[in-house]
UniProtKB/TrEMBL annotation:
One Pfam family this sequence matches: Plug
Family the entry assigns: Belongs to the TonB-dependent receptor family.
Source species taxonomy: Bacteria, Pseudomonadati, Pseudomonadota, Gammaproteobacteria, Lysobacterales
Organism: Dyella tabacisoli
Official protein name in the record: TonB-dependent receptor
Compartment(s) of residence: Cell outer membrane
Length: 976
């Protein structure tokens, strides 16, 4: 610890004493940087086509010059972008374990047009994610993940890869395709992210590398290790060609803490008690406030292996395996408002204070909701202890063959197996209390909550055991894929370079099980036991299984909340089977009971087969148009077959007073539902590049893309319901909710144009304009459907609506080598993205009834109009440093979040990260990586709300404020 503290102190001094940089690598030469072959398959045509340009000569001249660290990685990424057949951006790690950030997700956000979330799920913004999640490209969430150019996914009921599951230490680079060619696998309307791992033949001989580190968050205050090791070698034999073998393992742990304080939805109020003293005809009043601390831990293990054999110059065989094992656990203590928002009134003898437009600012809260046998008018709060654990394992095994049939023809064959499993348990134990003298003030930078008397929260007799809730998920996805490609090189042709043709077939099965959130009461005002007040208070019942939680250093001391509070102990929250035996012994006998099994409606079993064929022609001419140009034109034809099996469930009217004829049919029974469907898509593409000068090129790209619906949206389950009249003798409304296995994919026609200037080996300036015409957005609607002669109003997702997305990207990167002496080590990277959209389908919610209503138009989820990155770099001698600022503007997280059912937004967000590394010698470097240096507060907004009477409250109220760790990691890297 003493050595670690000294290293951290030294690193911090260096960090704040200079400028910093985005990527760290050990010494290499420009020859070691990956070529375009790392992005697209190597082609015979690429080796033969075209005369040498000034760029080629410049690259040859540089081959004898040692290019190290940051410059090597930037030069590699720049070469990939400049020479690619389509519009692509890359981040490379020439050295082992040297991506600029400690997660793939955080690395991706440095690329222009790419943004990420900082929440565990977009529809659950109550739970913050320090590492980031949810990658979006140009404001679209339909992003497809690849591993080494092949399909890959996580078993999370969706289609994409959870990039946070994959160890960044295993990556050689990350590529983002924004307007692809026909030979790229379909499925990403927003774009495609390709993760590249290393191969033995990437280096001519033996390579050994390792990294080690210790990270700590200043909030969590826990040291966690990370390490990786790589061994790669190539052996040349006299009679059997070349053999290569690679083994790579990465291990990392992380512990973070986040604190949040939140305000409940603002409700339109017209009652006299609330408006007293205000001279208002209506006002908007929140229900109360919540505050929570979440402790998060994750462990990630990655294994990558590869074998290559080149028996002769015409044949190359490769087998690759990657396995990622991701485990996470989070433990949350939350004080959650538990009353009815519309029951909040001013405390006796007080009035609420409002802004000029009638929005609540401060006041003393009371509640007129029922308290059963309890006296007083305190406001109800729950003290919830929640523990969630998840393990996701993803395995990818692929085998490929490259065979030169002749000097002009190359055959590629590929077989792949992907398997991903995910299992999770989410369990919460609830206490409840009625807090007296609650004062709420939202007029400042963040809410202030007090209780009077303050000592009330420290008495366990003032709390009672209230409820418990368990949730289980078990997901499994398997895909098998076969691919065959043929490439023909047109020798000595002035116009045609080469052609590619290919076919691909996949078979994917998804079995996703999720049993919902099984909430059940222990004791409550309406579920009483034999005790003086009908409740099981904490002082008399299971007194050793609850404890005070102090919310130490909450919000770094910048928020005032009632504390400490009594919470269920870890022995209960961490073991739901033990919790049942204890809580059942004190609660109502018909109360909460664990439900680890899965009912028919909890099971989503689907299979999908795809067949694709493509053809692409690559062409170019150096003289015909006055400037050299090249490009490709092609089309990809795709057929998708979907097979889904599920159930419908009739409503249960057996205990109602309806006629026996209805009871006989509607008794809660299940009936089978199945669906088979297919659809075809033709996806043409055109990419052109004009080399205006050897350094300046202009690109044009047009393509069509598709994104298939998530498996959750296609679940073949129909839950049917019946609304009864007050005396339960007649059905007044027949309803249902369902998935839609007949959904078609979202489609887009995409246009891009880019002007790119490569004025130095590590200097570029580019601008890109893009436009997407998107159709078949997926949204829910209610239509009449008939079952057994009865008409039901069934709500399910449909393809509907269209939209247009347009925008621009600007990027710049340079080291200032023209400066004198030590100043030439400075450099800068910067990019800016603007995205705008029109159309799409979104709705809003009445906060009284949680019913969906019209009257509000919302933008697309995940779309920030503006985002940018700015990185200051310094690399000279043994020093390599960076400071990286990332910012994105407000965007819609979800049209209806799971807690408030309101549209919820993430406000403008910026974060500063940094690193400083010192190279001890040509093989070893040490350094410090940091995150969230500015201690950024993440703000969540809610609204607008539209009411069933036609009123629209267009305010965007602040729903929540979150802070999390500043993170520091001491890192050692070595390559031999």
């Amino acid at each position: 610890m003493a050595r670690l503290s000294a290293a951290v102190a030294l690193g911090m001094a260096l960090l704040y004493g200079g400028t910093a940089h985005a990527q760290q690598n050990t010494g290499t030469t420009s020859q070691d940087a990956p070529s375009q072959d790392a992005v697209a398959p190597a082609t015979a045509a690429a080796k033969k086509a075209g005369a040498k340009t000034k760029d080629d000569k410049q690259a040859v001249a540089l081959s004898a010059v040692t290019v190290t660290g940051v410059r090597a990685s930037l030069q590699s990424a720049q070469q990939l972008k400049q020479n690619a057949d389509q519009i692509v951006d890359s981040v490379t790690a020439v050295d082992i374990g040297a991506l600029p950030d400690r997660s793939v997700t955080e690395t991706l956000q440095r690329i222009s047009g790419v943004t990420i979330d900082h929440f565990m799920a977009r529809n659950d913004p109550d739970h913050f994610s320090a590492e980031g999640s949810g990658v979006m490209i140009r404001g679209m969430t339909q992003v497809r993940g690849e591993l080494n150019g092949r399909d890959v996914f996580s078993a999370n009921s969706g289609r994409g890869l959870s990039f946070e599951d994959v160890p960044a230490e295993l990556m050689a680079g990350v590529d983002v395709y924004k307007n692809p060619a026909a030979d790229i696998i379909e499925g990403g309307v927003g774009g495609t992210v390709n993760l590249r791992t290393r191969l033995p033949f990437d280096a001519p001989g033996r390579v050994i590398g390792f990294t080690g580190g210790i990270n700590e968050g200043d909030f969590a205050k826990k040291n966690k290790p990370s390490a990786s090791f790589l061994y790669s070698n190539v052996w040349k034999t006299e009679n059997h060609g070349e053999f290569g073998a690679l083994f790579d393992v990465a291990y990392s742990e992380l512990a973070t803490r986040s604190d949040g304080i939140q305000v409940e939805p603002y409700i339109k109020r017209t009652d006299a008690a609330v408006l007293a003293g205000s001279n208002l005809s209506q006002a908007y009043v929140p229900g109360g406030a919540d505050w929570r601390t979440l402790d998060f831990q994750r462990r990630r293990i990655g294994l990558a292996g590869a074998l290559q054999w080149r028996p002769n110059k015409n044949l190359e065989l490769t087998t690759q395996v990657l396995r990622s094992d991701y485990r996470m656990n989070w433990d949350e203590h939350g004080a959650i408002f538990g009353d009815s928002s519309s029951s909040i009134v001013p405390a006796d003898g007080t009035t609420f204070k409002y802004s000029n437009d009638g929005v609540f600012q401060s006041g003393s809260l009371a509640s007129n909701s029922s308290r059963g046998s309890l006296a007083g008018n305190g406001v109800r709060f729950g003290t919830d202890h929640r523990n969630a654990a998840q393990r996701t394992i993803t395995t990818d095994w692929s085998n490929s063959l490259k065979y030169n049939l002749s000097d002009q023809m190359v055959l590629y064959a590929d077989a792949q197996l992907v398997k991903s499993t995910s299992k999770s348990l989410d369990f919460t134990v609830f206490d409840a209390t009625y807090l007296p003298g609650v004062s709420l003030d939202v007029s400042g930078a963040r809410p202030t909550v007090t209780v009077s008397p303050a000592s009330y929260t420290s008495n366990p007799a003032n709390y009672f055991w209230n409820a418990a809730m368990d949730h289980h998920e078990q997901n499994r996805g398997i895909e098998r894929a076969l691919k065959l490609d043929l490439e023909y090189n047109f020798e000595d042709n002035k116009w045609l370079r080469y052609a590619r043709f290919g076919v691909r077939a996949t078979s994917r099965s998804e079995l996703n099980k999720s049993n919902g959130y099984n909430w059940g009461v222990v004791t409550d005002n309406w579920a009483t036991i034999d005790s003086p007040n009908g409740l099981a208070n904490l002082s008399s019942y299971l007194p050793n299984l609850s404890s005070l939680y102090s919310f130490s250093n909450f919000f770094r001391g910048n928020a005032k909340i009632p504390a400490p509070l009594y919470f269920p102990g870890g022995a209960l929250a961490g073991n739901y089977l033990y919790a049942y035996t204890q809580l059942h012994s004190i609660g109502v006998p018909w109360g909460w009971k664990p439900r680890p099994d899965f009912r028919p409606q909890d099971i989503n079993n689907q299979s999908e087969k795809t067949k694709a064929a493509y053809g692409a022609l690559y062409f170019g001419n150096d003289e015909a148009l006055g400037v050299p140009f090249d490009g490709n034109i092609g089309v990809r034809l795709v057929r998708t077959d979907v097979d889904a099996a599920g159930y419908g469930q009739y409503p249960d009217l057996t205990s109602a007073g309806v006629p026996d004829s209805l009871k006989a049919i509607y008794n809660g029974s299940y009936f089978p539902l199945g669906s088979r469907s297919h659809y075809q898509n033709a996806l043409p593409s055109l990419n052109l590049r004009f080399k205006l000068t050897p350094e300046l090129q202009w690109r044009l790209a047009v393509s069509k893309a598709m994104a298939r619906p998530d498996f959750t949206q296609m679940q073949p389950y129909l839950a049917m319901g019946a609304t009864l009249n007050p005396d339960k003798t007649e059905v007044t409304k027949w309803t249902g909710t369902a998935g839609n296995p007949n959904l078609k994919p979202m489609r887009a026609t995409q246009y891009d144009t880019a002007l790119e200037w490569y004025f130095a080996p590590t200097g570029q300036l580019y601008t890109t304009l893009f436009y997407k015409d998107v159709s078949d957005y997926i949204a829910s609607q209610t239509h009449s459907e008939t079952y057994n002669g009865q008409v039901f109003g069934v709500t399910r997702p449909y393809n509907m609506g269209s939209g247009k997305i347009r925008g621009a990207e600007i990027g710049y990167s340079q080291f200032y080598d023209f400066l004198p002496s030590w100043l030439r080590g400075f450099g800068m990277q910067a990019n800016f993205t603007y995205v705008d959209s029109k159309g799409g389908v979104n709705t809003a919610t009445d906060p009284y009834s949680n019913a969906t209503v019209t009257g509000v138009t919302l933008p697309l989820e995940g779309l920030s109009k503006r985002s940018y990155n700015f990185t200051g770099m310094y690399e000279r001698g043994p020093w390599s440093m960076r400071l990286a600022w990332t910012w994105r503007s407000r965007y819609l997280l979800t049209a209806s979040d799971v807690a408030t059912h309101l549209p919820t937004w993430s406000d403008d967000f910026g974060q500063l990260d940094g690193s400083v590394f010192y190279r001890i010698n040509s093989n070893v470097q040490v350094g410090l990586q940091t995150n969230n240096l500015t201690n950024t507060t993440t703000k969540v907004l809610m609204g607008p709300a539209s009411y069933s009477d036609g009123t629209v409250d267009r305010h965007l109220y602040t729903r929540g404020w979150f802070v999390n760790d500043r993170r520091y990691e001491f890192v050692l890297r070595a390559t031999f």
